Amino acid sequence: MSLTKAALRWLRGIPAAVAHAREDVAAVRANDPAARSPVEVALFYPGVHALWMHRIAHDLWTHDAPLSARAVAHLSRFITGIEIHPGATIGRRVFIDHGMGIVVGETATIGDDCLLYKGVVLGGVSLARTLRHPQLKNGVVVGSNACILGAIDIGEGARIGSGSVVVRPVPPGATVVGVPARVIVPVKHRFDAALDHANLPDPVQDMIRALVAQNEKLRARVEALETKLDIAHVEEPIFLPYEGEELPPADGG
After folding, report:
1. Number of compact structural domains in the chain
2. Beta bridge partners of 165
3. Which domain holds residue 89?
4. What's the maximum distance between 2 C-alpha atoms anywhere in the chain?
5. pTM of the predicted structure, to 2 decimals
6. Are 31 and 95 in contact (CB under 8 A)?
7. Of 128, 80, 124, residue with least CA distance to 101
8. 14-31 vs 46-62: helix axis angle to the nearest 10?
């Protein structure tokens, strides 16, 4: 493509680019109470800068200028700490909050109105040059340090808890947490807030509590049976190593 044609195409795209930039700023102000003004967002929000530079890189990528596209993406990574492959497709009004460490793979798709926190990885699990990265539908929220791996669909309005590792498709509107991630809030019980990190259920802790409660019921039944059969009940001590004692030195001496 000649430089003249590229320049004309970019000039024709300026009105749309300005409109999208205004949407980006508005999305930040709608989702971040720390954002005081549009000027502050435009100047000092790296997530916004990463999106703007990605649009340039993606345009170059889709118009047969891969080296230039990678150069822009590399510069964006250096400036913002956010790595987005120029081949990735990103929708409108996406908000990248505290985006340091975010990685978005080549064939990933991020729909409109999505929210990504720092450290999110949209990665692949295949070396094949086909669709191999996650496909986020509209309105998805991904918590800090969550990893979504493989060519899987994350349904519209789904919520991914912080630190989760998602390797299977997520239904629309569901909330998942854990390693590997499991659905812990079905669609009909979804959170009103975008993602209440402090109050997300812990499936492992819930399972432990259920086991403890079941164990207490079994103990009560055994004690009742021993009483009925006139069998002396012997309370077995629970052994906790080094309880109340100083731990030995690390070398065993």
Report:
1. 1
2. 147
3. 3-199
4. 98
5. 0.75
6. yes
7. 80
8. 150
Please report, for the domain that includes residue 30, its CATH number.
2.160.10.10
In DSSP terms, which residues pair with 104 in a beta bridge? 84, 122
Q: Judge whether 213 lies within some domain.
A: no
Residue 104 phi/psi, 5° resolution? -125, 120
In a domain, 222, yes or no: no
**Tokens 């720092």 sit on residue:** 118
CA 124 to chain centre: 14
Judge whether residue 107 has pLDDT over 70. yes
Separation of alpha carbons 191 and 168, rounded Å: 21
Please check whether residue 99 lies inside any domain of the structure: yes
In a domain, 89, yes or no: yes
Q: What is the distance, to the nearest Å, from the Cα of residue 123 to the centroid of all Cα atoms in its chain?
A: 11
What is the Cα–Cα distance from 216 to 220, expressed in whole angstroms?
A: 6
CA-CA distances (angstroms) from residue 226 to 215, 219, 222, 230, 235?
A: 16, 10, 6, 6, 12
In this prediction, what percent of the chain has a pLDDT beyond 70? 82
Q: What is the 3-state secondary structure (H, E, C) of 77-92?
A: HHHHCCEECCCCEECC
Helices 66-80 and 46-62 meet at what angle, rounded to 10?
Answer: 170
